[in-house]
Amino acid sequence: PIGLIDGKLIDLSENIVPMEDRGHQFGDGVYEVTRVYNGYCFALKQHIDRLYRSLRELKIPAVYTTEELTGFHELLIKESGITDGAVYLQITRGVAPRAHGFPDSVVPRLTMSIRPMSSVPDKNKLEGAKALLIPDERWLRCDIKSLNLLGNVLGKQKAKEAGCFEGVQVRDEYVTEGTSSNFFVVKDDVVWTHPDCNLILKGVTRTLLIEKLAPAAGVLVVEKKFNTAFVKAADEAFLSGTTTEITPLVIIDGKPVGNGAVGPITRKLQEAYWALIDRECNR
Ligand code: PLP
Question: Ligand 1 atom closest to Cα of 208?
Answer without folding.
Answer: 14
